[in-house]
Specification:
By secondary structure, the protein is an all-alpha fold. The chain has two domains: 2-92, no CATH class; 150-285. Helix content is 67%, strand content 0%. The chain has eight helices and no strands. It has helices at residues 2-9, 13-37, 51-92, 99-105, 150-184, 195-211, 220-246, 249-280. Helix 2 (13-37) packs antiparallel against helix 3, helix 5 (150-184) packs antiparallel against helix 8 (249-280) and helix 6 (195-211) packs antiparallel against helix 7. It is elongated. The N and C termini lie far apart (126 Å).
C-alpha cells in the first residue's frame, strides 16, 4: 500500500522505489527483533508456565513492537524529507549551462596582430638658399610702439639679439675665406700665421652667445642652421690646427670643405632670417 501511494504522489520514480524498499526492510528488521527478544524466534512460551512468565512475555512483546514502529516511522519521515528536498533543489537550482550557451554568452576575442612600432624619422633639412639676400634698408626712425601680438613681439626681440651676432659671424667668414683662397693657390703658410686661430677664438664666443638664446617657434629652423654652421666651423679649424702641427695634406682638404660648408650654412640662415622678418612685416623694428 505504501508503495502504491508513493508512486502516485512522487515525481521521481527512482526515489519512490527506494522509499518502498527501505520501509519493507525496516518492517522485516522490526519483526526479527521482536522474535529475537521474546525467545529466539520460538514465539510465546509453550506449556502452562506461570502467570509471571506470561506477563513478562507480553510486556517484552509490547516494548519491541513500539521500538519497531518507532524505527519504521523515523525511516518514513527521512525518506519523505529526502524526496521533498530533492524536488525543491531541482526546482530552485539553475540549469547547468551547456557549451553552446557559454559560447553565446561569452564571446571569444579574436587576436589581432599588433602594428609594427613606429620609427621617428627626422625631417630632412630645408634646401639651402646660398645666394645672398639683400636686407631692406633701415627706416628713417624706428616705430614708437611694438608690433601687435605677443608672437610678433617675441620675434622682434629675437631678431634684435641675433642681428649683431650674424653681422659679426659674417665678417669672420669673409675674412677667413680670403685666407683659404690664398692657401688654395699654394701658400699654405697663411693657414698657420695665427689669423685663423684668432678668428676661431672670436667665433667660439659668438657661437656661445647664439646657444644661449631661445628662438620663437617661427625662427627655430633659422636657429638650428646657425648652430650647424658653428659645428662645421669648429671642425674646419680643428683640421687646420692638425695641418699646422703635422703638415699633412690629409687635414687641409677636409678643413677647406668644412669651412665652405660653414659659410654656406651661415648665409642660408641669414637669408631666411630676413625673409621671415619681411614676411611678418616686422623688419622696421629690427636695429641694423
Amino acid at each position: 500500500m505504501h508503495s502504491d501511494q508513493q508512486a502516485k504522489y512522487c515525481h521521481r520514480p527512482s526515489l519512490t522505489v527506494q522509499l518502498a524498499t527501505t520501509i519493507e526492510a525496516n518492517v522485516s528488521a522490526a519483526r526479527s527483533m521482536v522474535l529475537l527478544l521474546v525467545g529466539g524466534g520460538n514465539g510465546r512460551p509453550k506449556g502452562r508456565g506461570t502467570y509471571r512468565s506470561q506477563k513478562q512475555w507480553a510486556m517484552n512483546t509490547k516494548t519491541c513492537l513500539w521500538i519497531g514502529l518507532g524505527a519504521l516511522a523515523l525511516a518514513i519521515v527521512c525518506c519523505i524529507g529526502a524526496l521533498i528536498g530533492g524536488a525543491l533543489a531541482g526546482r530552485d537550482s539553475p540549469a547547468t549551462p551547456t557549451a553552446a550557451d557559454l559560447a553565446t554568452e561569452i564571446p571569444i576575442p579574436t587576436l589581432r596582430p599588433s602594428p609594427p612600432p613606429r620609427t621617428f624619422v627626422s625631417p630632412p633639412p630645408p634646401p639651402p638658399t646660398v645666394t645672398p639676400y639683400i636686407p631692406p634698408p633701415p627706416p628713417a626712425t624706428l616705430p614708437g610702439v611694438p608690433p601687435p601680438g605677443n608672437d610678433l613681439q617675441a620675434l622682434v626681440a629675437y631678431a634684435n639679439e641675433m642681428q649683431p651676432l650674424l653681422v659679426e659671424a659674417a665678417e669672420f667668414v669673409e675674412r677667413d675665406g680670403e685666407i683659404l683662397k690664398e692657401a688654395e693657390e699654394g701658400n699654405d703658410a697663411v693657414l698657420c700665421d695665427g689669423r685663423l686661430a684668432a678668428d676661431n677664438v672670436a667665433m667660439e664666443d659668438v657661437l656661445g652667445r647664439v646657444q644661449g638664446i631661445t628662438p620663437p617657434p617661427d625662427a627655430a629652423v633659422i636657429h638650428d642652421l646657425l648652430l650647424r654652421s658653428g659645428d662645421a666651423w669648429s671642425e674646419a679649424l680643428d683640421n687646420v690646427e692638425l695641418f699646422c702641427e703635422t703638415g699633412s695634406e690629409l687635414y687641409k682638404i677636409p678643413a677647406v670643405l668644412k669651412f665652405w660648408e660653414a659659410g654656406a650654412t651661415l648665409q642660408d640662415a641669414a637669408n631666411r632670417f630676413w625673409l621671415l622678418l619681411v614676411a611678418k612685416g616686422v623688419e622696421d623694428w629690427v636695429q641694423r
